[in-house]
Structures are given as structure tokens and as C-alpha cells.
Design brief:
The chain is an alpha+beta fold. The chain is 42% helix and 12% strand. It has one domain. The protein contains three helices and three strands. The longest helix is centred in the last third of the chain and has 14 residues.
Length: 76
């Protein structure tokens, strides 16, 4: 295995980065976390209100793929 390859299963990203990758605002990502069972909930390193929510990059990629697979083809 190439030591320079980064495995997205082990990369943590911020909520802002996750929203950007998905093309959402942070608010839209929060809404989807609440209402879409497929959307990754994220995790916190500490059990405090101020602890930032982080996501596994591979989970965001998987969710993005699910959205694209369910999308309708654009017309015009």
C-alpha cells in the first residue's frame, strides 16, 4: 500500500467542511441530520455542548453518493 494514500475512513472533518463537500449550508446539513436517516450524525470528541461536531470523510462521501443516486436528472 502506498504510504502517501490517505484513507477517507480515517479522516475527520468539521461540520463546515462536510457541508461544503455536500454543497449545503451548515444549517441545511443540520436539518438533514435531524430528518434524513441516511445522513451521518457526526460525533463529538467530548460530551460538552461546546465540543465541535466532526464527521468521518468516508461517511460524507457515502451520503453524497446516496443523494446523487436518488436524484432526478436535470432537464433544460
Amino acid at each position: 500500500m502506498n504510504k502517501d494514500v490517505i484513507n477517507p475512513a480515517y479522516v475527520q472533518i468539521s461540520k463546515k467542511q462536510a457541508a461544503s463537500i455536500l454543497g449545503f449550508s451548515e444549517r441545511e446539513l443540520d436539518n438533514r441530520r435531524k430528518n434524513d436517516k441516511r445522513c451521518p450524525k457526526g460525533f463529538k470528541e467530548y460530551d460538552t455542548r461546546s465540543s465541535p461536531v466532526r464527521f468521518r470523510l468516508s461517511d460524507i462521501y457515502t451520503y453524497s453518493e446516496a443523494i446523487m443516486n436518488d436524484a432526478m436528472e436535470a432537464t433544460g
